[in-house]
Write a structure and sequence with these properties.
Rossmann fold; globular; alpha/beta; 6-stranded parallel β-sheet; 11% strand; 48% helix; 5 domains; Arc Repressor Mutant, subunit A
């Protein structure tokens, strides 16, 4: 269709949207839609997909039906369209959040031809009453937004999306524009096939976002790292993604108690709270939103300065789309993700019970994510290769480019990989090829008798991990291809054959080795401290502890145990409040014994002009599991420890671990009622006096040697040690 009265598209753009020019290939896409042609648009987040259907809807007769997956997205875009027009009814949405009266108003505006854009959830589209209503409407075109939801290989697959084409046929056919920010060639093909638009004109924008910085960090003390980052970037807008609703709530709470303006967002919240939190973020009443992946689709906030992934997402499509919400205005955009292989294992567990084909797809997508995280190749180079786009130069704006690992000439290694792929005739995955080269006799290798091949073990001086890295870099160079249709089987590309005919040096980097760590323990400190212990201060603190223990007539370990002193010599707490954040020190101990320690540390820091860790004061919130609270309350009610352990499905030694953790942090517990049932008074007195007079350490083994292993059990000693520290230490 031609634009009326000789008005140019640029004039319409300026008049309705206030922009003076189109971005990228928006203009060609809009002309294609106006011409009534099926159109497929692959355009990264922030490149202006919405305009590609919004503007044509204003120029064409009838109403454009926009099929969109999220109520929040619809509301945001309807508000945006109404702000461009004096006519309130120019855009509406039709979904489950509306009352019957509101639905009738929407339908009347559509019938009266006031409405140019009608947003519909796929679930609403399939309702019989809506199908019958839309059959009466002149439809200009259908826009399928977030079209990757159609594909089982897409990161947000929704079965109801696969019913869109039959419903369109039932309502009445019209041109279709399908839009997505993330689609591999496989996903694109799925979308076009399912929507019966194989002959559509395809418009692809580059996936390269020059302003985005990508970094992967090991998941160690991630909460503290996040707080430190936000404090170093005050006032900047950011999104933090977590996979579980529980973690979203916990992290948002921790950020708030640490003075950061943050709110949670997830699908389990009631609609009013969720929408309110989103609006506060858009209106800049808060700086940070902590969310599941439900947040952000279509949210047009241009100045998000950082996107942090507390948990690694299930796929690179999801990761790319979520990071794409940073720096949409072309300004700074930091994309930081915390990676632990344990998170990947958790995601694999979640897949159990699903159909086998779905599990295979999920595992393949996860493997791509692992490869991306562990690789030392330029991050954007990998991402673009995944989406079928070739990037010839490194970005010089990611952790791998700015902190490169040593490189080696990989010519021989590449040739070995290619020759193995040829020998296996494109019928095996990357792991299998890596195992053959590394000489690892897995059950699959033995099943196919591949340990008898001449190439088996030909690269055994290197690990299977190394060979997987070489395979990934051969994929990026497009010497080999991954057959997604067959769950990732590797086959040769023409470029690979050409390389074998005329090989040349290729510089490779070995992959990162991420420690197999979890996030924080309950004190807020992970298995390894981020700083190194100040040995001089540690020694001075031990001397002070010894001096005080003599003065108080208590064994030194009752005051503070060695790990607590080590943490003090790492974190340098200079107030009683800061001392409470030290491992194994709670409010009670900090107030009772801490003053002399923090005064000594403050003087030490001043004299040596020490710069303390900036993330020192990270306040914690009550452990959401409530296990410690439950134990304290149960002991107050004199419930047997056996019953407490049974109620929480704990072994007795695990329960004692929890109780020791509670009393070592300064909380006083009285377990006399239980000890009296397992030890007579004389035995209790003997162990108590041992810890008061003779013990040099808190060691249970030393106590058993001294007091007699035939007389006491390990459990007896632990119970009495708890009583001793609780009474005298707390």
């Amino acid at each position: 269709m031609k634009v009326a009265d000789g008005v140019s598209l640029t004039d319409v753009l300026k008049r309705f949207f206030g922009f003076t020019g189109f971005k990228g290939n928006q203009k060609q896409i809009i002309r294609n839609v106006l011409a009534g042609k099926d159109t497929f648009v692959l355009m990264p987040t922030g490149a202006g997909k919405s305009l590609c259907y919004q503007l044509p809807s204003l120029l064409m007769d009838g109403t454009a039906i926009v099929i969109s997956p999220l109520i929040a997205l619809m509301k945001n875009q309807v508000d945006s369209m109404r702000s461009f027009s004096e006519e309130e009814g120019i855009a509406h949405f039709l979904n489950s959040s509306l009352t019957r009266a509101q639905i009738n108003k929407v339908k009347q505006d559509v019938i009266d031809q006031k409405t140019r854009l009608l947003y519909v959830a796929p679930e609403s589209l399939t309702k019989e009453e809506n199908i019958q209503f839309l059959r009466q409407v002149k439809i200009s075109f259908y826009a399928v937004d977030e079209a990757h939801c159609i594909s089982e290989w897409g990161h947000d697959f929704r079965p109801e999306y696969r019913r869109i084409r039959p419903i369109i046929n039932e309502i009445g056919t019209a041109p279709i524009i399908a839009l997505t920010a993330t689609a591999t060639p496989k996903v694109q093909n799925d979308i076009q096939k399912n929507l019966d638009m194989m002959n559509a004109d395809v418009f692809k924008a580059s996936f390269r976002r020059h302003n985005l910085y990508y970094e992967i960090r090991p998941k160690r003390n991630a909460t503290k790292e996040i707080i430190k980052y936000i404090r170093n970037n005050p006032g900047k807008s950011g999104i933090i993604y977590c996979l579980s609703r529980k973690k979203v709530e916990e992290l948002a709470e921790i950020l708030k108690v640490n003075g950061i303006k943050a709110l949670p967002y997830h699908a389990g919240m009631d609609s009013a709270t969720r929408t309110g939190n989103q609006d506060k973020f858009l209106m800049e009443d808060i700086d940070v939103i902590v969310a599941t992946i439900a947040f952000g689709m279509g949210i047009d906030k241009p100045d998000v300065r950082f996107v942090i992934h507390y948990d690694i997402p299930k796929s690179l499509e999801g990761y790319y789309q979520e990071t794409g919400r940073a720096g949409r205005d072309g300004g700074e955009g930091k994309c930081i993700a915390f990676y632990s292989y344990k998170d990947i294992q958790k995601l694999e567990k979640f897949m159990q019970g699903k159909p086998l084909a779905e599990q295979e797809i999920g595992k393949q997508l996860l493997l791509e994510t692992v490869a991306y995280c562990e690789s030392s190749v330029c991050r954007p180079v990998q991402l673009l290769a995944y989406f079928g786009e070739e990037m010839t130069e490194n970005c010089e704006n990611c952790d791998n480019c700015l902190k490169p690992k040593p490189r080696l000439n990989g010519e021989e290694y590449i040739k070995m990989v290619l020759n193995t792929v040829i020998e296996l005739r494109g019928k095996f995955k990357a792991d299998h090829i890596a195992n053959i080269l590394a000489g690892i006799k897995t059950s699959q290798v033995k099943t196919y008798k591949h340990h008898h091949l001449e190439i088996f073990g030909s690269g055994q001086e290197k690990s299977d991990r190394f060979w997987n890295a070489v395979i990934r870099q051969a994929l990026i160079a497009r010497f080999i291809q991954k057959d997604i249709e067959n769950y990732g089987l590797l086959k040769m590309d023409e470029r690979g054959y050409d390389y074998l005919k005329s090989p040349y040096p290729i510089m490779l980097t070995e992959d990162h080795e991420y420690p197999d760590t979890d996030e924080e323990d309950e004190t807020g400190y992970g298995p390894e401290r981020t700083g190194s212990v100040d040995d001089e201060l540690f020694s001075i603190l031990k001397d002070l502890r010894k001096k005080m223990s003599k003065k108080l007539n208590l064994p030194p370990f009752v005051l503070f145990q060695d790990p607590s002193l080590e943490d003090m010599a790492t974190q340098y707490p200079v107030s009683v409040e800061e001392l409470q954040n030290i491992s194994g020190v709670g409010l009670g101990k900090a107030k009772k014994y801490g003053l002399e320690f923090v005064e000594l540390i403050r003087k030490y820091v001043e004299e040596r002009d020490i710069i303390r860790p900036q993330d020192m004061v990270v306040k914690s919130v009550v452990n959401k599991s409530g296990i410690k609270v439950y134990i304290i309350q149960s002991i107050d009610r004199k419930i047997s420890l056996d019953d407490i352990a049974a109620a929480k499905n704990l072994e007795m030694n695990q329960l004692l671990d929890e109780i020791e953790s509670i009393i070592n942090s300064g909380t006083r517990l009285n377990i006399d009622y239980y000890i009296d049932t397992v030890l007579d008074k004389d035995h209790q007195d003997e162990v108590f006096e041992y810890f008061r007079e003779d013990a040099e350490t808190e060691s249970v083994e030393d106590a058993l040697k001294e007091l007699g292993e035939d007389e006491y059990t390990e459990e007896d000693i632990r119970l009495m040690r708890i009583k001793f520290i609780s009474e005298l230490g707390n």
